[in-house]
Amino acid sequence: MDQSILRITKELADLQRSSDLAIAVACRDIDVRNVKALIIGPHETPYEFGFFEFTLKFHKSYPSDAPNVQCVTTNGGRCRFNPNIYSSGKVCLSILGTWRGERGEEWSSAQGMESILLSIQSLMSANPYENEPGFENANSPDDKRKQAAYVQKIRHESLRISVIQRLEGYLALNPDGTKIAPPMPSDDPDGEVDIDESTIPFEPFKDLCKRRFLWYFESYMAAIRLGQSETTDGTAFKNMPFESGGGNGMEGRFNYRDLERRLLNIKEALGSELTTWAKDGLTAQLSDSTVAVNLRHQFEQMVAYFRRGDVPHSVALENDNAFIWILTYFGRPMTNLDGGMIRIKLHFSPRFPTEQPRVIFQSKIFHHFIAPDGTYCYNPPASAVSDVRSHIETILEVLEDDQPARTRGSNTTEDFADLYKIAWRTSPNEPSRPAAEMPYTRRRSYLSHLPGLSSVSFGAKSEKMPAASIFKALYVH
Questions:
Q1: Can 92 be counted among the known catalytic residues?
Q2: pLDDT tens-digit profile of 219-237?
Q3: CATH entry, 3-179+204-277, from 3.90.660.10, 1.10.3720.10, 3.10.450.50, 3.10.110.10
Q4: Alpha-carbon distance 368 to 348, whole Å?
Q5: Domain 288-399: what homologous superfamily?
Q6: Per-residue pLDDT tens digits for 176-189
Q7: Torsions phi, psi of 321, nearest 5?
Q8: Residue 362 — very low, low, confident or very high, per pLDDT cuts 50/70/90?
Q9: Can you give the pLDDT at residue 39?
Q10: Among 31, 184, 251, 306, which is most exposed with the fewest C-beta within 10 angstroms?
């Protein structure tokens, strides 16, 4: 086999098995030389949790020669998201040979798909203004104002173009929230139409972006609030000195009120999808569809598996619907979740495993992979996407990790950040003390009887505590 094909195939497999939440790659089975990649905008940058898509075209001379890389997220060639990412899609990087570089910065066969994508993501910095050659040390008061203005418009357009427009397209939503009419059916009386598979849109990140949108939703809303505090709707974007005419810039006006409305419409539409999945799932059961039969069989296997286990976890179907599973998790003895009982709902699509399950924690639990509304983010096992047991084991494995590592692209919410300042008191008149000082058994009994978290203070003077102590102090209520 062609050595370049072997190299590309291995790199694809390595990236797809990776736990990195910030990068995803895919290609058609019949064409591994044309790869699509999704880069999640880094946290604490104006690109935060945006969905930026790129194409990588590999030549037969790869890895001796670098692939051709193009940015697809350009609003139809009208938006330049970075001094090094043009509206035409061109990506200026020395390792790609699209920009002059110092000795040692050129492409070599030791480079690969991952190093390219990480290099591109590094361009999405907190201050992209300084990426422009000659502006690296531009720190005059005027430059500072321009830097802030550049960040403000990138944040706005990252939300509008990379997130909102993408999700509206996936959900067939107009900007006003109404549904786009589906295409008319064929006029062929026999209903037979020859379809060229190469003409069918290849959207490998559609399901991924939907799930990530739900996980990042609160961060998007926080970006809206920040933008509203810094700008006024209707104000035109400021042009930067390095932005040229002819569309190679970022022109427009702020309109955060409209972006907020559209974000809420998308959230509602994604919620409606779960209702549709449940309804269509019951219909699929009646017709004994392949997916319905498979899910019920896997459910029965999962019930038997839990019965043989040493911890009394259980799984049930909601309304006997094989497309909605209720997982009840019991914390293992001598772990941070000891004594906890957590209820988790798994929604399955009639198109499973093409569409992955959406996992929602119905019990309140603080974890950086769980959004405030309970949406859970995890990487499905690449080699077993159709095996529900593998999904559940992955979910529980991350949940039981005593020292959860924060990965690139993981969510950060104000609520989770506040947990590092948590304090406790036994009465309103007692001074607050760090939760880590509370005996473990007392933390459990104390917090298990709270109707909510209103009795737990989040004082600014509270001492910081490690993540492991957080989960011991507050695991569920």
A1: yes
A2: 999 999 999 999 999 999 9
A3: 3.10.110.10
A4: 23
A5: Ubiquitin Conjugating Enzyme (3.10.110.10)
A6: 999 998 876 555 55
A7: -100, 115
A8: very high
A9: 98
A10: 184
DSSP secondary structure letters along 87-106: TTSBB--GGGTSS---TT-S
Q: 361-370: buried (b, 16+ CB within 10 Å) or exposed (e) per residue?
A: beeebbbbbb
Tokens of 216: 């990042």
Closest among 175, 161, 154, 174 to 230, alpha carbons compared: 154
CATH 3.10.110.10 location in the chain: 3-179+204-277, 288-399
Taking the C-alpha atoms of residue 38 and residue 29, their distance in angstroms, rounded to an integer, is 18
Position of tokens 């119905």?
A: 362
Token pair 């959004």: residue: 371
pLDDT for res 209 = 98
CA distances from 382 to 117, 399, 473 (A): 20, 19, 34
Contacts 24+ apart (CB under 8 A), 378-383: 379/19, 379/21, 380/356, 382/13, 382/16, 382/17, 383/17
What pLDDT digit, counting tens, does each position of 239-283 carry? 999 997 777 899 999 999 999 999 999 999 999 999 999 999 999
Instruction: Determine which one of 79, 92, 209, 377 is catalytic.
Output: 92
Round the average pLDDT of the chain to a whole number and report it.
Answer: 84
